[in-house]
Amino acid sequence: MDRSKQLKFRWIAIPALLFLTFFIWTTDKVTLQGERTIYTVNCLNGSWDGNRCSGEIAAGPRFRYRALMARDEVLFWVLGAQEPSSKLTGCKIEDGRHWTCPESAEAPKSLTLALLHGDPVRNPAWSTRPFHSTSKVGWFLLDFGFKFAQVIN
Prior knowledge:
The protein is α+β, with helices and mostly antiparallel strands. It has helices at about 5-25, 135-145; strands spanning about 35-45, 50, 50-55, 55-70, 75-80, 85-90, 90-95, 100, 115, 120, 135. Strands 6-5-4-1-11 form a 5-stranded antiparallel sheet. The longest helix is centred in the first third of the chain and has 25 residues, at about 5-25. It is flat and about 65 Å long. The model has no long low-confidence stretch (mean pLDDT about 85).
C-alpha cells in the first residue's frame, strides 16, 4: 500500500475500532469473571405505577453479581457502598449470565435470585428487593443529570 492509502485506512479503521469498543462497553456484552451489573433507578418525590415514575427519576445503586461455578455460589454487592458483599449459595450456574439460586437468608439483600440471558428475573414470590432497572447508558445519563422517561426496563 502506498502512503496515502495507509493514511485513509487509518482514518477509517481507528474510528471504527473506537465505535466498536464503545458499543461493546455500553451493552455489557463482554464482562470479566462471570460478572453482571444491574443498573437501578429510583423515583424521587413520587411513586412507581408499573414502570412510570410520578416524581423525578434518578440513578439508583448498581448491583454487581459474580457467579462462582466451582462453588455453586453467586456473590453480589452494591458498587460504591461500604457494606460487605453477600452470597447466594446452592446455585445452579451455567455461566455468568445464566444462573438461578434458591431462597436463602441473603435473598432480601439481593435484587434477584436468577439471571436469564444476563437480565434479572423478577418473581413476586421471592423475598428479594423490589427494583426498576435501566441500561448502562441510561444509568450514566441519569447520573450525569439528564432526565428522560424512556430508561426504565
